[in-house]
C-alpha cells in the first residue's frame, strides 16, 4: 500500500517586498540578495495574518467535504506558535469545520518539524488506511530590522493531506536522520525574533546533509544518479544549491537534470522567502508545478531544522500528481500580491500585537484572505472567515 501526500495547498500574505528595494535601503548591491542568497522577493505579514490564519488559508485551498469526513489527525508544525499551551491545530479544526472527533496537536523542532509531522502522519495512515491526516507547516521568519538575517525573512504556510493511494507523492520507508544539540539558531520564549549564528548554521546545514546522505547511500545501496531531483530545506534558495553541489556527479546528463530540477524547485521560494517548517515543502510544490517530471520520478528530500535535526528520505512521484494541487490558484495568489515600500515593511514589522493582555481590534477590510485575525479580546485571538 502506497502512503504519502494526496493534496497540497499553499498560502502567503497579500503583501510583498522587492529585495532590490531593500538592498538600496540598506546600502547593499542588489546582487548580494538576488545572487548571493538567491532571493527576489520577501513576504510581508500584515497584523491580520498569523500562523493559524495562514495554515487555515492553505488548507482551505484543497480540503473538500470528503476530506472533512476522513481527516481525524491534524499535525501543526511551526516554530512561530501563538500560544504556549493551545495548539494551532485546534483553531484550524474549527475554522475549517473538521470533525470534532480528531486529534489536533502542535509539533516543534525548528524547520524540521513538518517532516516529523509528515512521517508521523504516514505511520498513522499505515495503521488506519481508511482515514486521512492533515499536516500543516506554517511560520513567520523574523530576525529583526538591519540585522544580517533580515534578508532571509519570509512567511507562509503549506498544507498537506496524507492518505493511502495518494495522488501526488508516495513516501518510501527509507530514511536516515541525525540529531545533535547545536546552538546555531534558537528563539528564547521572551523574544519575537530568532537568534542565529549565520555562518555556523550554514556549515552545520551542509554537515548534516553530508552525514544523513552518506549514511543513506550506505544503508540502502543507492547513489545520486538514482534520483530525478534532490530537494532541500531552503532558508534562502542559495543554501540548497550549496548542498546540491557537494553531490553532483561527473555524469553531465545527470548533473544537468538535478540542477535544472533544483532551479524549478526553488522558483517559488525565491519570491516568498523563508517559511521555516514549510520551506522544503514549498520547494517540492514548486518543482511539481514548474519542473518536468516523468511518472514514477524518484525524489530525494533533505529536511533540516536548526538546533539541530536533519533527515533524508525518498519519495516517488505519482502519475496524476498535478491533480493534487491548484497551480493556477497559487500563481494567481503570488501575482496578485501588493508591493510595499521599505518604510511600510518596517512599520508592519514593528507594529506587533500587544503582549500585555490589552484588547486590540484590527481592520480586516484590506486583507483579501478568507481567514483573518480580527484582533485580541480578553487575551483571546479572534479568528474568523471574511
UniProtKB/TrEMBL annotation:
Every Hydroxymethylglutaryl-coenzyme A synthase C-terminal domain range: 179-253, 264-348
Keyword Cytoplasm set for record: no
Coiled coil: none
Pfam families assigned to the protein according to its UniProt record, in alphabetical order: HMG_CoA_synt_C, HMG_CoA_synt_N
UniProt xrefs under InterPro entries: HMG_CoA_synt_C_dom (IPR013746), HMG_CoA_synth_N (IPR013528), HMG_CoA_synthase_prok (IPR011554), Thiolase-like (IPR016039)
Molecular function per GO: hydroxymethylglutaryl-CoA synthase activity
Entry's EC annotation: 2.3.3.10
Span of domain Hydroxymethylglutaryl-coenzyme A synthase N-terminal: 2-164
Keywords in alphabetical order: Acyltransferase, Transferase
Gene3D superfamilies membership: 3.40.47.10
Keyword Aminoacyl-tRNA synthetase: no
Source organism superkingdom: Bacteria
Family: Belongs to the thiolase-like superfamily. HMG-CoA synthase family.
PANTHER family: 3-HYDROXY-3-METHYLGLUTARYL COENZYME A SYNTHASE, HYDROXYMETHYLGLUTARYL-COA SYNTHASE
Family matches, as NCBIfam families: HMG-CoA-S_prok
Protein name per UniProt: Hydroxymethylglutaryl-CoA synthase
Amino acid at each position: 500500500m502506497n502512503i504519502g501526500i494526496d493534496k497540497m495547498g499553499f498560502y502567503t500574505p497579500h503583501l510583498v517586498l522587492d529585495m532590490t528595494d531593500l538592498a538600496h535601503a540598506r546600502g547593499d548591491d542588489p546582487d548580494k540578495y538576488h545572487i548571493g542568497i538567491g532571493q527576489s522577493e520577501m513576504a510581508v505579514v500584515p497584523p491580520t495574518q498569523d500562523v493559524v490564519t495562514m495554515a487555515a488559508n492553505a488548507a482551505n485551498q484543497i480540503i473538500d467535504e470528503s476530506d472533512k469526513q476522513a481527516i481525524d489527525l491534524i499535525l501543526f508544525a511551526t516554530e512561530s506558535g501563538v500560544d504556549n499551551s493551545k495548539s494551532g491545530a485546534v483553531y484550524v479544526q474549527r475554522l475549517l469545520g473538521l470533525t470534532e472527533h480528531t486529534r489536533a496537536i502542535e509539533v516543534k523542532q525548528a524547520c524540521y518539524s513538518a517532516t516529523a509531522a509528515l512521517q508521523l502522519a504516514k505511520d498513522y495512515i499505515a495503521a488506519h488506511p481508511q482515514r486521512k491526516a492533515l499536516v500543516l507547516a506554517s511560520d513567520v521568519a523574523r530576525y529583526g530590522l538591519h540585522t544580517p538575517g533580515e534578508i532571509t525573512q519570509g512567511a507562509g504556510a503549506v498544507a498537506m493531506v496524507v492518505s493511502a493511494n495518494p495522488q501526488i507523492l508516495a513516501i518510501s520507508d527509507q530514511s536516515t536522520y541525525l540529531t545533535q544539540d547545536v546552538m546555531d539558531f534558537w528563539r528564547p520564549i521572551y523574544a519575537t525574533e530568532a537568534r542565529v549564528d549565520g555562518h555556523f548554521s550554514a556549515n552545520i546545514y551542509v554537515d548534516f546533509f553530508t552525514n544523513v546522505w552518506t549514511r543513506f547511500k550506505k544503508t540502502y545501496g543507492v547513489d545520486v544518479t538514482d534520483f530525478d531531483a534532490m530537494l532541500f530545506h531552503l532558508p534562502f534558495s542559495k543554501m540548497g544549491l550549496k548542498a546540491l553541489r557537494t553531490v553532483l556527479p561527473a555524469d553531465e546528463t545527470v548533473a544537468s537534470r538535478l540542477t535544472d530540477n533544483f532551479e524549478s524547485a526553488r522558483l517559488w521560494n525565491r519570491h516568498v522567502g523563508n517559511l521555516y517548517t514549510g520551506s522544503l515543502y514549498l520547494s517540492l510544490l514548486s518543482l511539481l508545478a514548474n519542473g518536468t517530471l516523468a511518472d514514477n520520478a524518484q525524489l530525494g528530500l533533505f529536511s533540516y531544522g536548526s538546533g539541530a535535526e536533519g533527515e533524508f528520505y525518498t519519495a516517488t512521484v505519482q502519475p496524476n500528481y498535478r491533480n493534487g494541487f491548484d497551480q493556477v490558484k497559487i500563481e494567481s495568489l503570488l501575482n496578485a500580491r501588493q508591493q510595499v515600500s521599505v518604510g511600510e515593511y518596517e512599520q508592519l514589522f514593528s507594529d506587533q500585537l500587544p503582549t500585555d493582555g490589552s484588547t486590540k481590534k484590527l481592520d480586516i477590510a484590506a486583507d483579501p484572505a478568507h481567514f483573518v485575525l480580527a484582533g485580541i479580546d480578553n487575551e483571546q485571538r479572534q479568528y474568523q472567515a471574511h
